[in-house]
Every structure is written in C-alpha cells, then in structure tokens.
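Example S7 (structure tokens).
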C-alpha cells in the first residue's frame, strides 16, 4: 500500500506570501493540481517537509483571451485551456496538447504550471521504494550511474509533459517570481529557456522560483497561421507521450514562414527540431518538403531505452507524426484557399 508521507501544508493568499514561504521553509514544495506531485509522494520519490498550496492565490486559475495575446495563470486547469473557444480556434496546437494530457479527471485537476514543471520520468526511477531498493541507485536518486545509458555522465530521464512543446512552438514566455533580499524579485524569459537537457536538473529556475504567468504573444505577421499537435502513446488515454510533435507556421503567398517544430517525450527537455524547420522555412509545402522535414525531425530525436517501446520505434513515430502533421496542414490550407471557401 502506498501512503502519503507526513508533512505540513501552508496555503498562501498571494504570490508574495507563496515565494516567501518557499524561501523560508526548508524542504517546502509547491502544490498546484497535484496530479504529478501526489503520485511522486506515494512512490517515495519526494519527501517534503511542507507543501505550499497555491490554489488560493487570486487569478491563479485565469485563462485570459480578452486581449491580443493569451495570458494563462499557472493554476489554469488543462480542461479549461483545451475547451476555450478562442484557443481551439486560434491555437489548436495548444488545445490539442492540453486535451491529450491524461484523462478527463486528470485534466479537470491538472494545471498549466504543473504540466510545465512536471518531473522527468524513467522506467528505472518511477517505481516503488521496494522496487528501487533492489537496484543500483541511479543519478536521479543520487547515485553515480544512469541505468538507461550506463556510460553516460548525465541522467536521461524523459520530460514527458504535453503542453510545453506546444507552448515553445508558439513562442510562449513565462513570468517568474522568487523571494530574495526580503522582497519579491520578478523576471520574464522565453519558456524554452527554463528547460535543459538533464533529467536531474531539467528546470533552469532559481530555488523557490515560481511561474506566475504564461504569455502567448499575438500573431501579427501577414499570412494565415496554422498549428497542430500529435502524440504517440500506448493507450489513447492516461499515458504519457512516448513521442510528440508540435508544429506552428504561417503561410504567406504559398510560402512557409516562421516555422516551428518542437518534439516532446524524446529527451530531458523539449527538442526544437532546427534542421526540420530549415527544410520548410521559405519554401512551398510540398510532399517532398514534408518528407525531408520529417526525416530531419527524426534525426533530432535521441530517445534512450527508458520508456515503453524501443528508441527506434519512438524515433520512427517522430518521422511519421511530423509528416502527417505537415500533410494535414497542406490539406487544410488548400481547403481554406479554395474558391468559395470562407478563408479564400
């Protein structure tokens, strides 16, 4: 039987109080929706002295689409993001990614901020304490070896969140806050910059630093923007991604511009497939261009044997999903530009 460890709970009523508590209470861990944190606590992967419950902070759950851009509170429910009419219409890559997380119950409880900061996963790590006691401690447990890649000097645990690759593809930025010198210190950075390809230290955040807002900039360049998301998993519900592809582009006079292709579930951080983007940028979206880009995306993926399926299978699915997304985009854009269509 897996039980939760003993710990205290603090419930701040403001961001200032939250970051102060995380700074002052040693061993404190922030609690958002808890869909990732609670299973980790039951498995004994974390043993915090205190949980800082963020649910009572004003505007924490906000999904603000009233202006030019989109502003998400870190406590915004994934179900609300997936169902929002403007997000579904203008940012389908984000709506699809949010809708692909877990199950309806998990999406009703899980949050954007929790998904952005989801712990990395590995078949050798996400086990019960009894199971782990029979194996050599890995790097993520404080040992000196990666059990998935024994010759590697770093941890290859996988960042298996669905929404971060989609948000990175959309050029999202995050606002951050921490307590320092007796006051709140705030900063803003590109979402992509808070990740690093290291399964132990996958978040480039300061100690006690919180995401306070996710900002998706407006689409202001000429041309129609298209975006899409596909996810490979064993079951069509519940499961984490074994690989995912998020793609965003705009079409101007039949030419692809501002192309972004971001992979998920194949490394310790979202992978920007630069070579795939280069195959598409400034060119017409033909079948040949889609195939070349898909092959380039597969070359950017370097999965290791620490998830279900083989690395080769997951890499192949990156290629298949990338080409499928591009084919879907071509068909959709042709339909929009056809005579008599509303978008023509």
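Recovered sequence:
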């Amino acid at each position: 039987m897996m039980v939760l460890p003993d710990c205290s709970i603090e419930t701040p009523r403001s961001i200032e109080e939250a970051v102060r508590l995380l700074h002052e209470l040693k061993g404190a861990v922030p609690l958002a929706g808890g869909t990732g944190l609670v299973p980790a606590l039951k498995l004994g992967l974390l043993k915090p002295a205190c949980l800082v419950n963020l649910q009572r902070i004003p505007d924490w759950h906000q999904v603000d689409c009233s202006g030019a851009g989109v502003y998400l509170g870190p406590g915004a429910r994934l179900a609300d993001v997936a169902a929002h009419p403007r997000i579904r219409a203008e940012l389908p890559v984000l709506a699809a990614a949010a809708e692909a997380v877990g199950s309806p119950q998990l999406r009703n409880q899980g949050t954007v901020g929790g998904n952005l900061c989801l712990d990395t996963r590995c078949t050798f790590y996400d086990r019960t304490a009894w199971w782990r006691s029979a194996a050599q401690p890995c790097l993520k447990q404080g040992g000196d070896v990666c059990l998935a890649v024994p010759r590697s000097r770093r941890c290859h645990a996988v960042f298996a969140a669905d929404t971060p690759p989609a948000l990175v593809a959309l050029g999202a930025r995050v606002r951050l806050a921490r307590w320092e010198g007796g006051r709140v210190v705030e900063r803003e950075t590109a979402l992509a910059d808070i990740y690093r390809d290291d399964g132990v230290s996958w978040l480039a955040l300061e100690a006690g630093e919180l995401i306070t807002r996710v900002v998706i900039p407006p689409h202001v360049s000429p041309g129609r923007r298209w975006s899409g998301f596909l996810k490979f998993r064993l079951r069509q519900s519940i499961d984490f991604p074994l690989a995912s592809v998020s793609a965003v582009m705009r079409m101007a006079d039949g030419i692809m511009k501002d192309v972004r292709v971001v992979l998920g579930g194949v490394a310790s951080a979202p992978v920007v497939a630069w070579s795939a983007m280069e195959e598409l940028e400034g060119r017409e979206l033909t079948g040949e261009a889609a195939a070349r880009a898909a092959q380039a995306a597969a070359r950017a993926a370097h999965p290791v044997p620490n998830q279900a399926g083989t690395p080769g299978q997951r890499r192949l699915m990156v290629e298949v999903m990338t080409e499928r997304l591009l084919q879907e985009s071509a068909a959709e854009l042709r339909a929009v530009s056809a005579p008599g269509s509303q978008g023509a």
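Notes on this example. The chain has three domains: 1-58, 63-117+158-216, 224-337.
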